[in-house]
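User: Good morning. I'm curious how iron/sulfur cluster would be positioned relative to this chain. Could you predict the structure with it bound?
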Amino acid sequence: MLCEWIDHQLFAVKDGAVLFGVDQGSLFFIDELTRDALSRWNIRPTLELDDVPMADREILEGLRDARFLAPSGARHRLETPEFDIAAIPLSTMVLEVAQDCNLACSYCYAQGGSYGRAVRLLEPETARQAVRKLVDDSGDKETVTLVIFGGEPLLNMAAVTAAVEEAHNLSREKGKRVFVSLTTNGTLLNPDIIEFLHQKRIAVAVSLDGPADLHDANRPDLNGYGSYTTITGNLTGLLQGATAAVAARVTLTPEQWPRIEEVFFHLLELGFHEVGIAPVSPVRRELLPNAEQEEALLQGFSALSRIFLKAAQANRLLPFTNLIDLLARLHLGQTKSVSCGAGYGYLAVDTEGGFYVCHRLVGDESFRVGTLDEGADPAEIRRALDSLTCGKQEMCSSCWARTLCSGGCHYENHLRENQLGLAPGGSCDFIRRWFQLGIEVYAELRRSGADEFLQRLGKRVKC
Ligand code: SF4
Ligand code: SF4
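Assistant: Good morning! Here's the predicted structure, ligand included:
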């Protein structure tokens, strides 16, 4: 039988190798014999299995059964599907309750929380309308997610309270679960707000960038004073008696990347339940990293991943959410045909009741796709997404990480390519190395029999 190879990538791991099936997101351990046979035969674009010497033929038949080889001509290249946006229910809404902020973070992508507009707060009635829209447009989804966001959302407790009340009322009326989370800079938390958050079981993400020197350099208040002491002073109450996860959202600038490990453990010591670390978006050219800094970022993630692995082998979960999310997806073999949910069931609403395809693109008219009164226009969503995804398809179609990455974050790409005028693909090396690291950790976990642990992670993935 004439066969051709299905796209795959081979990774050396401790005590062997794993083969990653790109389109199906599958991972297989292979022994030395298979690796040798593979290197002998996968240099040929097609091969006649019947002509292969028996010793290798059996191995290649095994690879064919595992879908790394397909009958010639039967191999389908995965095209990006054309989703019918009008048919996709709304599942996540990011509600900008305050386009205003009491901090002046050095890397803010939202121009101090205003998104380049006049400072403005969401009317409580508009907050209620938005939540109703989320539930009404959610089709047969049993659970929807409301993310209360800003600027700094706690500057507008009237709208926060209105949105949460509406979410609870609608949950009862419609029999749907409205999962509510709130992202805050943590400076305005007080006992009343904390009690409200606890009582309503709201998951809270606090933006805190690590130890005081590092955090304060990134996140000063409007008078230039650091915000670390205020935030950590408020944390005790938030963490004590928490009824939902309290996560730290960390953003680090390139010169801070060598301190990733220290940052992570500092935040764990403060009592956070989860820690997610994001390299800063280059909202200014000065925030673009050099090669050495990029290496430090990878080394930092790698060091944390090794610690994660050791803990996992002892059945303990280190709450490093970057890696947890990746391992969970690898375990489920979950592939992506689009990079994220933006526009596909995920929309942001600004303080004027305008819909945007993503919260980070709020304020930019080219990504405004409707209003709460008129609804989000599927044709406008398609137009906005097409403008964000053009130009990269060819590069991505030959990339082994395409079904894990699927083009990367639209906002990051827009920022780099359209606003900074950089060539596409500047972060691809890092992206691929991060996925490779995840695959290596995953392989070691499987090797050490941590299947139950991985199953627990798999359950965390939001479909
Ligand atoms: S790593 Fe780069 S080339 Fe590969 S899929 Fe992602 S954006 Fe595309
Ligand atoms: S475009 Fe980027 S920031 Fe926006 S939802 Fe997608 S991944 Fe997230």
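Residues 340, 342, 346, 358, 360, 409-411 surround iron/sulfur cluster (ligand 2) (CB under 6 Å). Residues 2-71 form a domain with the Outer Surface Protein A; domain 3 fold (CATH 3.90.930).
Let me know if you'd like a different ligand tried.
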